[in-house]
Write a structure and sequence with these properties.
mainly alpha; Tetracycline Repressor, domain 2; 17 helices; flat; transmembrane helix; UbiA_prenyltransferase; protoheme IX farnesyltransferase activity
Length: about 300
């Protein structure tokens, strides 16, 4: 092999800024930022815009730190799964030790800075969120139980509570309900993805529900969790973060979500295979819109409240 080809290969595998940024799971981080911002803006009380910006920034950094530590620990299974083979560590662009160092450094930085910028209740919640996602979910539950995504989903549900605590210095019924909305949304959202990811998790030895209990059981679970989610989501309309805008939005979205879940429940594997899991993919896409619009409605109620147009 010539020197030129060696140099070309080395430059191809050399990590760039984009590779290090990818360690932070930016798509997941965007959800963290949005829900945390809604929790912060919907909370009663005033916070200076610069402090609010810093709070969201440090929450985002903490979420990214969790992502980096998750990729470090899961590098072995990421290498096996088609969906994750191009991540920075399995692709060989970032060393596992680098990812761990970045994750640990950003975790400490984000928690300390959030505490200094806002209060240490918010910082404590952020620290617990990172610990829960990395240790409880990634290191323990994910490879141990088919209920991994049910319990582990709590990690992704904390950001609005953190945003709320950054303003109020505490936890309330409203922030717990926002947490619960995301917590109950996560299983049907993720299980729908599992249905059309087919053998990825089985190949990696991860005991997801469809691997351990079968795809029919997964479809049953999606329907049950969707029905429970609808009760919680619509019920939130009658709390301090709800109102007519939220109620109308939630009624429409939950009707569509239940219709989609019933369609998935009624489907046979043969029918799903025949059309390339069209309904499952449609339900997964709707699930992304579902969460965004629910929190968007909460934000709208909060923004219009000072003008007497939001809330009850």
């Amino acid at each position: 092999m010539s020197d030129a080809s060696i140099n070309t290969q080395a430059s191809t595998n050399e990590a760039g800024f984009g590779d290090y940024f990818a360690l932070l799971k930016p798509r997941v981080m965007s959800l963290v930022v949005f829900t945390a911002a809604v929790g912060l803006l919907a909370a009663p009380g005033y916070v200076h815009p610069f402090v609010a910006f810093c709070a969201i920034l440090f929450i985002a950094v903490g979420g990214g730190a969790s992502g980096a530590l998750n990729m470090w620990w899961d590098a072995d299974i990421d290498h096996v799964m088609k969906r994750t083979q191009n991540r920075p560590i399995p692709s060989g662009k970032v060393e596992p030790g680098e990812a761990m160092a970045i994750g640990v450094a950003l975790s400490g930085f984000s928690v300390v800075m959030l505490g200094l910028a806002t209060n240490f209740v918010a910082a404590g919640l952020l620290a617990f969120t990172i610990f829960f996602y990395v240790v409880i979910y990634t290191m323990w539950l994910k490879r141990w139980t088919p209920q991994n995504i049910v319990i582990g989903g709590a990690a992704g549900a904390f950001p609005p509570m953190i945003g709320w605590a950054a303003v109020t210095g505490g936890v309330s019924v409203e922030s717990v309900l926002m947490f619960t909305l995301i917590f109950m949304w996560t299983p049907p959202h993720f299980w729908a993805l599992c249905l059309f990811m087919k053998s990825d998790y089985k190949d990696a030895g991860v005991p997801m529900l469809h691997v351990t209990h079968g795809r029919r059981s997964t479809r049953n679970h999606i329907l049950v969790y969707t029905l429970l989610l609808a009760i919680i989501a619509v019920g939130m309309a009658f709390t301090g973060v709800g109102g007519p805008i939220y109620l109308a939005t939630s009624l429409v979205l939950n009707a569509l979500f239940i219709i989609g879940a019933v369609a998935i429940w009624r489907r046979s594997e043969e029918a799903s295979e025949a059309d390339g899991f069209k309904r499952e993919k449609s339900f997964f896409g709707l699930s992304l819109l579902y969460l965004f619009l629910h929190f968007g409605a909460i934000l709208a109620e909060s923004a219009l409240a000072p003008y007497g147009l939001g809330g009850w």
